[in-house]
Amino acid sequence: MGAARLARRAARALALAAAALSAACAAPAPRQAPPEARAAAPRAPEDPEDAVWLLAAIDGRPARAATRAVFADGAVNAQGPCNAIRGRYRREGAAFHVVGLAVTRATCPDQDEENRLLDGLLSARSAEVRDGRLVIRASAGPTLTFEAARPGQ
């Protein structure tokens, strides 16, 4: 292929790109919805069933590994640092009890943290949601602090 032919192709490609860019710049700006139609900022959860929860701390110490938990219709489903966790829970006022946990049995470097998570869930006696945090307190185990996951998290 000759140099002149390559130059013509490059010039055509450049002209097409310039035309596309010009058309994009000339397009009107998208209209914004009126303030009343815009989605309101998500409200902070008020109940354990209002959110997907991310473990933030165990006994006030930051969690090292990602752990997600969902409490819905009396069931708890979580993905700990190492294993999937499923069980049931009962809630009456502030009283909160987790029963019948089933856990897969993989081991991992964060096994100690997962064991403390399981201990906190199995010995849970109360749960409180305040300021976007779920705090599960145990009678003889660690206190678990979860934060509500943001959309897409």
Describe the structure.
This protein has about 150 residues and is of the alpha+beta class. The protein is built from two helices and nine strands; from the N terminus they run αββββββαβββ. The chain has a domain at about 50-150: Lipocalin (Beta Barrel), CATH 2.40.128. A hairpin with a 2-residue loop joins β3 (about 70) and β4 (about 75-80). The two termini are about 50 Å apart. InterPro entries: DUF306_Meta_HslJ, HslJ-like_sf. Keywords: Signal, Stress response. This is Heat shock protein HslJ.
Number of strands: 9
Q: What percentage of residues falls in helices of 4 or more residues? A: 10-25%
Q: Which second-level CATH architecture of the domain at 48-148 applies? A: Beta Barrel
> What radius of gyration results from the CA coordinates?
26 Å
N- to C-terminal separation?
52 Å
Query: β content, as a range?
Result: 35-45%
CATH topology of the domain at 48-148: Lipocalin
Low-confidence sequence ranges: 13-30
SSE topology string: HEEEEEEHEEE
Mean of residue pLDDT values: 80
Number of helices: 2
> Which outline best applies?
globular
Signal peptide: 1-26
Keywords: Signal, Stress response
Domain DUF306: 49-147
Pfam family, one: META
